[in-house]
Design brief:
The protein is of the alpha/beta class and 256 residues long. 42% of the residues lie in helices and 16% in strands. The protein is built from 10 helices and 9 strands. The mean pLDDT is 96. The structure holds acetyl coenzyme *A. Acetyl coenzyme *A binds next to strand 5.
Length: 256
């Protein structure tokens, strides 16, 4: 298994190894993220047992995560890692490098798993994007989301722009990103950025309830249905109807 401690991550397997709970575990830094953490997430995704079908992402301490570790952009970088953009990196290399960082976020869309972000406290920048990478989000009533990148002279580049626009629409996504304002949990719920808001202290119970419900559905059907739903926004009706037929044939013939 990847060197999780070094990456600031914890892994717990439950429900007879069907549920992986990944905890961002740098509470003293509000779980600030770094390239090593994103690599840790990528490595972890490749090493999870085949039995895992639900992944829960949560944060240790007072916040889900304060986003990118701001030391990543200093010449020294995050201790033990160096700068996020090594000096002398050319434009094409940088495009490749950011692609590597994005892998830590992209795998959460894999139909193999249903993924849940359990958000409390802050979800800023990269953390908001990490939550957006999950299929489902549950937040506590004290949770605050913020797409802070533009306020720091950056663009959101950790795979969050597509789900954001898909969920809230282009005008609202523009407003949220270009003002970099804080979105309280109640508004996040109204915008459908989170599926459920629960009392502070009620997060673990709410996640457990959702996990239990998800596990009731047969694993193969869940996987095929996620795959189908995930492609719906990019498909025409004809394409989606065909995808439904193909997926159903796959289900119906599986026992033969
Ligand atoms: N990077 C590095 N260290 C951080 C970060 C961060 N993103 N966020 C918090 N920390 C550290 C603080 O420096 C502080 O360290 P110290 O105890 O050595 O002084 C410790 O974590 C606790 O932070 P506080 O600010 O004291 O905690 P508080 O609960 O009051 O505030 C909050 C939390 C709102 C998250 C605040 O820390 C904050 O605004 N952090 C920066 C958020 C940010 O700009 N992230 C980058 C977004 S852009 C992107 O992700 C691409």
């Amino acid at each position: 298994m990847a060197d999780l401690e070094k990456a600031g991550l914890l892994l717990d397997l439950g429900h007879e190894d069907t549920v992986a709970t990944i905890t961002l575990n740098r509470p003293e830094r509000r779980n600030a993220q770094s390239p090593a953490m994103w690599k840790g997430l990528t490595d972890l995704s490749e090493e999870l047992p085949e039995s895992v079908r639900v992944v829960v992402l949560k944060g240790a301490g007072p916040s889900f995560s304060a986003g990118l570790d701001l030391r990543a952009f200093t010449p020294e970088g995050v201790p033990g890692e160096g700068p996020a953009v090594p000096p002398g990196t050319g434009p094409e290399e940088l495009v490749e490098l950011i692609g590597e960082y994005q892998r830590g976020f992209r795998w959460l869309r894999d139909p193999r798993f249903t993924t849940i972000a359990a958000v409390h406290g802050h979800a800023i920048g990269a953390a908001f994007q990490l939550a957006l990478s999950c299929d489902l989000r549950i937040a506590t009533e004290d949770a605050r989301f913020c797409m802070k990148e533009p306020a720091l002279g950056l663009v959101p580049d950790l795979t969050g722009t597509k789900p954001l626009v898909d969920i809230v629409g282009l005008p609202r996504a523009l407003e949220l990103c270009l003002t970099a304002r804080v979105i309280p949990a109640a508004e996040a719920y109204e915008l459908r950025l989170v599926e459920k808001v629960v009392a502070t202290g009620g997060l673990d119970a709410a996640v457990e309830e959702l996990v239990t419900a998800l596990l009731q559905v047969e694993a193969g059907a869940a996987r095929a249905t996620k795959e189908l739903l995930r492609q719906a926004p990019g498909n025409t009706l004809d394409e989606q109807c065909l995808a439904e037929r193909r997926a159903q044939v796959g289900r119906l013939l599986r026992a033969r």
